């Protein structure tokens, strides 16, 4: 007979004593449980003791978290959090350097526990930490433990970052600005400031003033990867907290210092593989930089603006310079206006009598005008060739430069997500972005010439305009998906992907997606499905057995804490636990936490997950919701919450968990994999029927012949 749900079988250890095996009654007050344990070991003053996990983060057991104790858990009897907090509070004030250092080291470890952290903060422990930092001159191990303890205590959000004193902040800043400081101290100092910057405008301004961009660039150029990462994290935090004007000023300064070229050479093309967190910061830096175009993209042209009118006129003058000069001195005002309208018509403006009207649509707004002017000034020969070549074609076959430029700018804004908020987890940056100044404008220059090339290949007319731009969008997105490392390589690849290649790719994809619709083939597909679905199920379970590294995202979106989860080889237990950075496939024995598959009751995804409901839904980033899932277990009382690193991992894990729960696999990846496997299997099965048409209905079975007789007459046996 199984034990009652409110009774858990556990072991309790104590140094120098024989462990106790007890049945923990969850309905019994924890104080009574502790008294029984202490009495068994003849220990007085049970209130001075507490229970603590022996593995993982060694969390203290309290009335609020005791429900998480599982059968077979091993606990330790240790000093209670309030006693330990009192002891360490005294220890960090000791005049003995060794005692003080050991106390700070222990404090940094225990501060991860919320119960201990609250006890220590209630004793005004943070004030003592401030004193050690503000008044101390140590820059080595002791200071590193102090800052680590401070970070862990602040992580629990009991105290606001705005309460930090200017003296404390300036001391932290000094560690960053000094050269002769231990690297671990500088890393922690950068982390402190990174967490501080988003909390208030006042703190942002203080950090921006005290830590110069030059100093951050110095830290970016070191060989220590962790220090480099923390410097990048602070730089990104400053950029995200800045106003539009401040962000523009900061990005201009970084451009002057050639930060893109440095990142391209020393980080992206470093001998060391790029860490996920650094990839995310590079994505954010790219996104912030491209979003500087948003203001121009959302601003319509003002026909009364002298500056904007001059930019517009410069397009005409560059293309038709000699004609314009002749017209200026020879014709009347009305005649000049007529000539200008004719030239704007040749440039491809729809409203050629008033071309400003074409630029009233926002987006792309003035960004399209900026791109056209950049193209005309930086590649004048290509610009003149584009315009003059098309103005000499028949009216129906001319490619309108201005109209194409406006639509192409809008397409590039959509592909590059200009004007959209940064994702909190994405890592998809373009390496070529960091190898080129004026990336957006240079990309436009390549793509507008691609428009003209594709237009000619398609022998397009004005009626085909949308069709041509749709092909160009496909050419750009397909080439960007290859992640070219430079614009030159992008140019080579996108020009090689001509219209005929696009048609071939579309045809191939269509054949893959739309297998022949003959009834016998459809019946064969249905017969093959169960076998192939079972193959997919086995692959999903195998992936769960290999395990995946997940990141924890706290309320301040820090992603530096990792945990690993994997399924046991017999598919009966889910093992998980915290791991250190750099550990990619920990052995199953090193993962302390367990969930029996038999206890799993339900899989939740997206906004139904508890860890998504806890956070403000208004601030939730869409892609985080798309990667979130949770397992409910033990009569739906507890949840294990996940945020998948990628959509691919999300699909594999949710499918695998559904298989364990005996449910259908529902992810889009299942359908994709099934289609691929069905396509391959059908092609193999139908290989012998190539070039043979398959009828929709089977041929009729002929009638048996009149003399058909399978009966053997035993009466005529041989004598």
From TrEMBL:
The keyword rRNA-binding does not apply. GO terms for biological process: actin filament organization; apoptotic process; cell motility; phagocytosis. PROSITE patterns: ELMO. Residues 307-480 form the ELMO domain. The keyword Metal-binding does not apply. Keywords: Apoptosis, Phagocytosis, SH3-binding. One of its GO terms (molecular function) is SH3 domain binding. InterPro entries: ARM-like, ARM-type_fold, ELMO_ARM, ELMO_dom, ELMO_domain-containing, PH-like_dom_sf, PH_domain. Involved in cytoskeletal rearrangements required for phagocytosis of apoptotic cells and cell motility. Acts in association with DOCK1 and CRK. Was initially proposed to be required in complex with DOCK1 to activate Rac Rho small GTPases. May enhance the guanine nucleotide exchange factor (GEF) activity of DOCK1. This is ELMO3 protein. It comes from Pedionomus torquatus (Plains-wanderer). The gene is Elmo3.
């Amino acid at each position: 007979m199984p034990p009652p749900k409110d009774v858990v079988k556990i072991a309790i250890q104590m140094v120098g004593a024989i462990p106790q095996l007890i049945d923990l009654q969850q309905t019994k007050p924890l104080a009574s449980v502790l008294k029984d344990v202490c009495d068994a070991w003849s220990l007085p003053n049970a209130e001075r003791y507490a229970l603590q996990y022996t593995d993982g983060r060694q969390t203290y057991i309290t009335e609020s978290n005791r429900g998480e104790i599982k059968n077979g858990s091993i606990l330790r009897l240790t000093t209670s959090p309030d006693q330990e907090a009192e002891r360490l509070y005294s220890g960090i004030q000791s005049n003995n350097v060794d005692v003080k250092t050991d106390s700070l080291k222990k404090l940094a470890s225990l501060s991860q526990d919320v119960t201990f952290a609250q006890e220590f903060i209630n004793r005004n422990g943070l004030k003592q930490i401030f004193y050690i930092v503000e008044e101390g001159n140590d820059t080595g191990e002791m200071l590193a433990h102090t800052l680590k303890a401070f970070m862990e205590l602040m992580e629990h959000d009991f105290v606001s970052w705005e309460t930090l004193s200017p003296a404390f902040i300036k001391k932290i800043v000094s560690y960053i600005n000094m050269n002769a400081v231990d690297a671990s101290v500088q890393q922690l100092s950068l982390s402190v400031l990174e967490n501080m910057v988003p909390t208030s405008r006042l703190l942002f301004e203080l950090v921006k003033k005290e830590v110069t961009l030059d100093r951050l660039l110095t830290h970016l150029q070191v060989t220590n990867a962790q220090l480099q990462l923390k410097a990048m994290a602070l730089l990104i935090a400053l950029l995200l907290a800045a106003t539009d004007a401040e962000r523009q000023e900061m990005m201009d300064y970084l451009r002057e210092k050639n930060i893109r070229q440095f990142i391209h050479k020393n980080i992206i093309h470093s001998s060391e593989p790029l860490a996920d967190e650094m990839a995310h910061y590079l994505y954010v830096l790219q996104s912030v930089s491209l979003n500087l175009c948003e203001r121009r993209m959302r601003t319509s042209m003002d026909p009364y603006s002298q500056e904007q009118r001059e930019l517009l006129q410069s397009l005409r003058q560059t293309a038709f310079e000699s004609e314009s000069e002749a017209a200026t001195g020879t014709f009347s005002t009305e005649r000049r206006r007529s000539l200008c309208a004719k030239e704007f018509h040749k440039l491809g403006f729809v409203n050629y009598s008033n071309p400003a009207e074409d630029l009233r649509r926002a987006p792309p707004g003035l960004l399209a005008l900026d791109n056209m002017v950049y193209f005309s000034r930086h590649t004048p020969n290509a610009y003149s060739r584009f315009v003059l070549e098309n103005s000499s074609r028949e009216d129906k076959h001319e490619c309108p430069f201005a109209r194409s430029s406006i639509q192409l700018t809008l397409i590039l804004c959509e592909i590059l997500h200009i004007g959209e908020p940064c994702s909190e987890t994405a890592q998809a940056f373009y390496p070529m972005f960091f190898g080129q100044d004026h990336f957006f404008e240079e990309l436009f220059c390549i793509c507008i010439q691609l428009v003209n090339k594709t237009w000619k290949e398609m022998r397009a007319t004005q009626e085909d305009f949308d069709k041509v731009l749709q092909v160009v969008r496909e050419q750009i997105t397909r080439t960007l998906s290859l992640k070219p490392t430079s614009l030159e390589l992008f140019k080579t690849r996108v020009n090689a992907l001509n219209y005929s290649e696009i048609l071939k790719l579309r045809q191939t994809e269509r054949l893959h997606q739309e297998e022949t619709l003959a009834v016998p083939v459809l019946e064969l597909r249905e017969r093959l499905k169960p076998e192939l679905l079972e193959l997919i199920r086995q692959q999903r379970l195998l992936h769960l057995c290999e395990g995946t590294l997940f990141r924890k995202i706290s309320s301040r979106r820090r992603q530096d804490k990792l945990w690993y989860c994997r399924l046991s080889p017999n598919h009966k237990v889910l093992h998980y636990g915290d791991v250190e950075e750099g550990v990619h496939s920990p052995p199953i024995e090193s993962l302390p936490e367990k969930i029996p598959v038999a206890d799993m009751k339900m899989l939740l995804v997206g906004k139904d997950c508890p860890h998504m409901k806890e956070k403000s839904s208004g601030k939730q980033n869409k892609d985080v919701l798309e990667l979130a899932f949770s397992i409910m277990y033990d009569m739906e009382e507890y949840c294990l919450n996940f945020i998948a690193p990628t959509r691919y991992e999300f699909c594999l894990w949710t499918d695998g968990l559904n298989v364990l729960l005996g449910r259908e696999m529902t992810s889009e990846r299942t359908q994709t994999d099934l289609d691929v496997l069905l396509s391959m299997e059908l092609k193999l099965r139908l290989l012998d029927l190539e070039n043979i048409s398959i009828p929709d209905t089977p041929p009729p079975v002929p009638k048996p012949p009149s003399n058909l007789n399978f009966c053997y007459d035993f009466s005529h046996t041989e004598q």
